[in-house]
Amino acid sequence: MILSKKLKNIASVSHGFFNKSNGFSKGVYKSLNCGKGSGDNKKNVVKNLNYVKKKIGSKKNNIALLYQIHSSKIYFIKKLPRKRIVGDALITDKKYLPIGILTADCSPILILDIKKKIIAAVHSGWKGAYKNIVVKVLKKLIKLGSNKKDITVVIGPTIGQKNYEVGKEFKYKFLKKSNKNSVFFKLKQKKIYFDLVKFIQYQLICFGISKIDVIRKDTFEKKNNFFSARRSKSRKETDYGRNISVIMLK
């Protein structure tokens, strides 16, 4: 479990960015696969989620998760949802209600307003980032009474630029939105690479967030021990597990 330097010493919140270690799953899902939507044995996924729940100190609730669709849909919740929620961001002010995000190269983003005691968990792949999902979440927090100076945003382990090859159409889409986005692309040996983390970080800075932490772990790199969709596909594996990132008020 990886902790943010900016959050780990705050007594009112518990959080963690988890990789593949210390779980119960087998095969391509070995071992801490928390993706119920994967082809993994569901009992093992539940065991993995229970392990995560204990690690962050949640005693009664399960972890509130989403059916993620690379959207900009946001939900404010007060209790554990009984039905599946479709979207890519959760917000709560309820204590001991952990909220989480599943990723396998996309950016997991955890947010805390230390004054208002509000937290958010955001899933942002390139589509979500393009749709400004993290900014939309922050705007929602402002509407709820948050002040930008009280907000801390942590960008978790994400695929690094050197492993994130994209096509010309992809780059054109971002440049059409703004020519300034050219700085997030690198050309190497006639191949184009995109920096998702820096793009999200730039959005945060432009919105006026000063307390930003970036967990610099490339999920594609095998040594970091994260599930990676791109790495699995490059190996022609049939499926892949999902990493979980969780935050909870205490």
Distance between the termini: 18 Å
CATH topology: CNF1/YfiH-like putative cysteine hydrolases
Total strand segments = 12
Give the CATH level 1 class: Alpha Beta
Strand arrangement, major sheet:
2-3-6-5-7-11
* Count, helices: 6
Categorize the overall geometry. Answer: globular
Strand content: 15-25%
CATH architecture: 4-Layer Sandwich
Poorly predicted runs of 5 or more residues: none
Describe the structure.
- It contains six helices and twelve strands.
- It has helices spanning 42-55, 126-130, 133-143, 168-177, 196-207, 229-234, and strands spanning 13-17, 74-77, 89-92, 99-103, 107-113, 118-124, 151-155, 165-166, 185-188, 191-194, 211-214, 243-249.
- The protein has one domain (13-159, 211-249): CNF1/YfiH-like putative cysteine hydrolases (4-Layer Sandwich), CATH 3.60.140.10.
- With 250 residues, the protein is α+β, with helices and mostly antiparallel strands.
- The strands form three sheets. It has a six-stranded mixed sheet with strand order 2-3-6-5-7-11. A three-stranded antiparallel sheet has the order 1-12-4, with no helix packed on it.
- The mean pLDDT is 97.
